[in-house]
Amino acid sequence: MTKINQIVYDMDNLLDESESERSGCITKATSLCSPCPFVLYSTRVNRMKTLIKRLDHSARNSVIFGMMQHPRCDLEQTDTQEEFCRAAIVGRDGDRTKIKEFILQNDAETLSIIPIAGLVGLGKTALARLIFHDQGEGLDFDLRIWINLNRKFDLRKIAADIISQANETKEGGPSVVNTSVEIHGNLQLLKNRLQETLQCKRCLIVLDGLCSTDKSQLDELKEMLRGTNKSIKVLVTTSSEITAELMHTFTAYKLLPLSEDDCWTIFSEKAFGDGNCLNACLKTIGKQIAKRCDGIPALAHFLGSIVHNHQVMDVWLAARDEAIWKLERTGLASQRKN
User: Fold this and answer.
1) Is 72 helix (H, G, I), strand (E, B) or coil?
2) Higher pLDDT among residues 95 and 279, named by residue
3) What confidence tens digit (pLDDT) does each residue in 158-184 have?
4) What sign for the dihedral angle of Cα 217, 151, 123, 325?
5) Residues near 277 by Cβ (< 8 Å), separated by ≥ 6?
6) Sign of CA pseudo-dihedral 182, 184, 186, 192
7) CA 97 to chain centre
8) Of all residues in the chain, what percent carry a pLDDT higher than 70?
C-alpha cells in the first residue's frame, strides 16, 4: 500500500504540474505555433502512462488493495462468524480500552457517535461486538441494540429495527409493536415511535457496516437518534473515512493493522489447530504468509484456513505467493475440505 500511495501522490503532483504548465503556456504563448503545449502534453501523457502501469502492477501485488476491490469474497465468509470474531480480537485489548474510555468521557452528552473506521478485514465488527457485550463499570445501559446494516442504508428499516429490539428487550420476548404496516410506511411515525421507545433510556446502539456518504442521509439519521433526553451512545463501524467524518460527534477511532506477531498468532492457530507446528519448513513459510497479511486479521484467518490440515508444499507456497483473488479460482479453498 505504501507503493500505491506514492504512485497516487505522484499522479496528483503530475496533474497539478500539468495545470500549472498549461496556464503558464497559455499566458506566455504569442502564437498558435508555440511548441510548448504540444511538447509538454506529450511528455505528461508518457509519464502518466508509466504511472498507470506502475499502479496496475502494484495493485495486483497488494494484498490490502485486493481486499478493498473484492470486499465480499470468501475471505470474510469461509468460516463461521463466531470463529473469526474470536480470531479478530487478538491484539485488540488496547483498542477496546480506548474506545470504552471514549464512551465514558462523553457520558454527559445526549448523543455520542463514535465511528470505528478502518480497512476491510481489520475486525471492526468483532471489536464492536466485544464492547457491546462488555458489562464493565460505567457500561450499565438500559438497552443494547445491534443493527446490521450490511452496507445498505434504509432509514425506515433502521428505525423499525431499533424499535423492535428495544421492545423485545423490555418484554423479554418477540416484539409485539406493529412497525410493518401503517407505521413502517411512514417515516415520521417511525421517528415519533422511536423517540417514545428510547425516551429516558440509556442506550448503546451499534450501527454495523454503515457506508453511506450522503450528508443529508446521515444528518437525518443523527437527528432521528438525537430526540431523547437521556444518554445514547452509538458505535458505528465503517470502512469509509468520509462516512466517519460526516457521522461522528466525537473523534473517529481509526483502527490500525495488527502487528506481524499478532497475524502469526491468528494464522498459526487456524493453520495448525493448537498453534504449534512441528515442521520447521512449514513454520518458515507460515511466517512468510503471516508477513504478507499486512496486519489484516481476516486475511491471516483466511490463509490459515487455506493451509489447514495440509502438508502439501504447493498449497503452502500458493498461500504465500498467489494473489488472494486467485486462491478461490484455483480451487484451493475447496481442497482444504477434502
Assistant:
1) coil
2) 95
3) 999 999 999 886 655 544 445 455 566
4) negative
5) 268, 271, 283, 286
6) positive
7) 19
8) 63
Taking the C-alpha atoms of 253, 256, 259 and 264 in order, what is their torsion angle to the nearest 10 degrees?
100
Give the closest residue to 99 by CA, choosing from 130, 60, 57.
Answer: 130
CA-CA distance, 41 to 19, in Å (whole number)? 11
What's the rounded Cα separation, in Å, for the pair 254 and 211?
15
Indicate the pLDDT class of residue 11, thresholds 50, 70 and 90: low
Q: Phi, psi at residue 233, to the nearest 5°?
A: -105, 130
First to last CA, the chain: 35
Nearest to 219 by CA among 184, 186, 243, 238: 243
Three-class SS state of 318 = helix
**pLDDT value at residue 328:** 61
What is the value of pTM for the model shown? Answer: 0.72
Helix axes 260-272, 81-88, angle to 10 degrees: 140
**Which residues, at least 6 apart from 330, have a Cβ–Cβ distance to it below 8 Å?**
318, 322
Q: If phi over 0 gives left and psi between -120 and 50 gives alpha, with beta otherwise, what is residue 244? A: alpha
Burial of 280 (0-12, 13-18, 19+ CB in 10 A): exposed
Model confidence over 103-127: pLDDT tens digits? Answer: 888 666 678 999 999 998 899 999 9
DSSP characters over 152-202: ---HHHHHHHHHHHHHHHHHTSS-----SSTTTT-HHHHHHHHHHHHTT--
Local confidence band at 326 (pLDDT 50, 70, 90 cut-offs) = confident
